[in-house]
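Tokens as discussed.
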């Protein structure tokens, strides 16, 4: 069973993402966390990947998320990091794409992707 931690501001979006990952034939277990809880996770938690929502407001800004990723990587060396963002914010989208090009994250997806695509992306990490 692969554990995916979600740090998403909107409960509605978090529920949709959680369902997308659980309602398929893959072996995902999903846990919702906030930043404080995420920083406390260690190797014993067996975290496969973390999905972080990126917005233009604190504490979900890209710079803060990238900083959080670096801190979490100290405890979760093999963990993969995926950013979830709104494709309609051109500047934010370009910055997230650049973070991927710079190898600061493992992947990113838009909030509008289908449940099957999201599950496929997470499976392919």
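Sequence:
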């Amino acid at each position: 069973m692969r554990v995916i931690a979600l740090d998403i501001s909107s409960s509605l979006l978090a529920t949709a993402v959680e369902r997308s990952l659980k309602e398929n034939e893959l072996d995902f277990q999903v846990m919702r966390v906030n930043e404080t809880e995420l920083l406390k996770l260690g190797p014993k938690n067996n975290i496969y990947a973390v999905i972080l929502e990126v917005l233009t407001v604190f504490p979900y800004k890209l710079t803060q998320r990238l900083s959080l990723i670096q801190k979490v990587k100290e405890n979760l060396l093999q963990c993969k990091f995926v950013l979830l963002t709104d494709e309609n914010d051109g500047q934010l989208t370009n910055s997230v794409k650049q973070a991927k090009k710079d190898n600061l994250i493992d992947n990113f997806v838009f909030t509008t992707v289908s449940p099957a695509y999201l599950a496929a992306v997470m499976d392919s990490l």
